[in-house]
Structure formats: C-alpha cells, structure tokens
Amino acid sequence: MEKNYDDSKRRSEDLDSVLGFSLKYTSLGDFLSDLTMDHASLSLDKIKPDNTETDLLHLSTVHSAKGLEFDLVFILNATEGIFPSSKNTDTEEERRLFYVAITRARKELYFTRPSLAHSRSGPYYTKLSRFLSEIQSPEKVYELKLVPGKSASQNFFSTKVSSSKTANDSFSRIQDYFGN
C-alpha cells in the first residue's frame, strides 16, 4: 500500500476501522448492505414521518445539516482530536464546520464529550475542544459531569446547558469572528 498511495497510513487506519466495524456482523450481505448504503443521499426533506408527531430525532453529520435548523441541537464528542480533527491540518476549515454545527440550533445548543476515551493504544483522557473556549460566555454556559450509576435525569436535566439567549450570544461572537 505504501508503494501505491501517498496517504497509505490514513488508508491503513481506514481499513482497520472497516475491519473493526465488520466484526459485529454475522452475514457478509448485511455488512455490505450497511457499508454501501449512501447515507448522504438521504436528505431530511425527503424523509416523511408516518404519523403527525413533530418530536422527531434527526441524526446528521455537520455536512448534511447545512441549511437546516432545529430547536435543539446536540454536538457530540466536542473534544480535541475529534472537533477539530487531528487528521485535518486545515484548522480554519474545521472552525467553519464548527460554525455550521452551532448555527443549526434555534433555541438550545448542547455539547457532549467523554472524559475518558479509548484508542488502539489504550484509554486516554480527553480535552475539551478549543473551539468552545472561543465562544463561551462563562456566566451562561455550564459544565455538567455525569456520574455513573445515576439516572440521566439526575445527572443531566437538572440544569440547562444553554438557552436561546446563550446560543444567540455565542452565534453573534462567532459571526463577529467571521465578519458576518
């Protein structure tokens, strides 16, 4: 692979990921079906619910959420090495993606991150994404630590992480940064 590709290390890591992903399947057909499904071609405007409920959960990548807005947005894994990615050397492009992600929220915006993560080399403690420190209003943003063994409501929903005012203030600061 090193002879044929300049980015052989990244390709090898990708193959390792595919191998790890494949281990949960017992059927080659199911694995290939999930692997080749083009999730990016499914846009939210084409998905019609079977009922009239409006409280739907939409899972999306940042790229496919461009142009869409939601009352409540969770940005998962807001850690250094993930957001911004350690694989991308263009920090400004990562910052633009972060801007897209946070501007999807109309009312409430939440960030999550594990304090401990695992890689091939073993467990490690994560660091909060540097992008969060660029937008935080300390008086309006709260850090909540989840305690194993407690229910989600005991851990999480006792305090709001942000309100629409916080989100709007944060958006204004980001927009100022980009000159909008």
Automatic annotation (TrEMBL):
The keyword Hydrolase applies. GO terms for biological process: recombinational repair. One of its GO terms (molecular function) is 3'-5' DNA helicase activity. Pfam families: UvrD_C. One of its GO terms (cellular component) is cytosol. It comes from the Bacteria. InterPro entries: DNA_helicase_UvrD-like_C, DNA_helicase_UvrD/REP, P-loop_NTPase. Keywords: ATP-binding, Helicase, Hydrolase, Nucleotide-binding. Residues 38-112 form the UvrD-like helicase C-terminal domain. PANTHER family: DNA 3'-5' HELICASE, UVRD / RECB / PCRA DNA HELICASE FAMILY MEMBER. This is UvrD-like helicase C-terminal domain-containing protein.
